Structure formats: C-alpha cells, structure tokens
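Quick one: structure tokens for this chain, please?
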Amino acid sequence: MLHLGQYQDLIILRETDPGLYLGDGEENEVLLPHKYKPEEFEIGDSIRVFIYLDHEERPIATTLEPYITLNDFGFLSCVDVNKFGAFLDWGLEKQLFVPFKEQAWPMKEGNWYVVYLYLDEVTNRLVASSRTNKFTDNKSLTVDKFDEVEIMVTHLSDKGANVIVNGKHLGLIYIDDIFEDIRAGDRMKAFVKKIREDNKIDIVLHSPGYRSIEPNANYILDELKAAGGFLPLHDKSDPETIKNELGLSKKSFKKAIGSLYKDRQIDIKPDGIELKKDA
C-alpha cells in the first residue's frame, strides 16, 4: 500500500521515459521522476522515497525531504493566498494547501505558521491546518513530572511560551522560567515541571527541582573557567544581573553555587565567586 505523506522503502521495478516506477510488493506502483532518481541503481534495488500528490492529484514519489510529514507539526512559510485558501512552502514542488476553514487566523503571504499535516478523508488529499489545538489532547497524558520531552513553541503570550509536548499535548513555559531567547517554531528538549489538576502541563527548559542543581553547577564551573576563575556574582546579586549574565534564575544560581561551595570547588566572596585553585 502506498502511504501519502510518509516515507516508504519501495522497490525499483522498471525505468521508463518519465522516470522509475517503484512498487511495494503488493502490485501498487508509483512514479519517481527522472530528476529524483539516484545516479547509480539497478532494477530490484530498494529506495527510500516520500509519497505525495502531484499537480494532477496523482501519487508521486520524491527523494526530496519535506519540512513536515503526516500527523506531525511543522513551522512553514506562506507563499501564496488566493480564493481557495493559502499555500505553504514545505520543501516540495507542489505547495501545501491550507483551506480557509483550517486557518486559525487569515494567513498572509510571507508570514510563518505552526501547522499540522493530516490526510483529508473526504478528498484523500494532504492538507495543513493552523488550528493546532484540535490535534492535541490533554485528557490522556503520556508524560509525568520530571520527564524529558520534545517541545515545539507555537506562540508567545503574556504568560509565557505555549508549546506542543511530544507532538501530542499542550504545555506552557511560564515567563518567569524563560531565561533564553525562544521563538515560535523552535524545537528543543525540555522537562515537565508540573502537571496540574486540570492536566495542564508546566514546562521548563532545564531540569526542575533538585535535578537541575548538578547541570547548573557544571555550567557555572565552565563559566568560571572561561572568565579566568572569578565571576562578580554572588547570593546578594540582583536577579536581573544573574539572568542577563548566566541565563539562570537567582534561585537556580544560589542552589548551584551552594552545591559547588559544599563540594569545595568555589569560594564565595563579598564581591563574587572564585574557583578554588585545585578545583
């Protein structure tokens, strides 16, 4: 069976004027145009391709790698808007269609949007939607407190950064927990800080609680070494100064230097912290 919107390993069946015909072993065939065929191949070889619909709505194979695959989220630019809807650049020749009804806000050419790619059951076409919330579910969570997760930032608000967690759930990084520059479309590893009674997920970019002490301690050691063994920061420093210099909250900074002091790796002086000579 040919799977639209996904990568497949298919067998090269024969070469024709339009290109190579590939098969799945179940008498299903698809064309790989000549411009995408490998420089060297033999009939019977296996080749990994992506399947989508061409301009005439026929399945077609390509060795190009799209920016988004079926049932996943991506951050794509709008390249055209007409009376039918919007069209996004997803790395393939034929642009990705977004019907007006699937636009959370009217899309504009040149802007970027977080979208979800799905297969429309009525038309059997690959379609994108910026109404991303309807493709997430927080009723049945698959994550727990302190879990490391993959996140994608959808948008920023007064509260913080709204994110999609593991491609399944909605989460939020509160503004007080953001110590670095993040933008819509960013993908990164993060951690579950808390799961609320209503199943809302609080996310942080560094390991929460006691698990963050050691990584932050190592980070501060590296910063001390890079600065020649001294940093003009201490437990009385202004929180904004600590945030600007190290990207850490004052609470995290104090925990980390407390751990380093206890391990006798630093001295805490009135004007800053100093690396011990034997550390």
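The mean pLDDT is 92.
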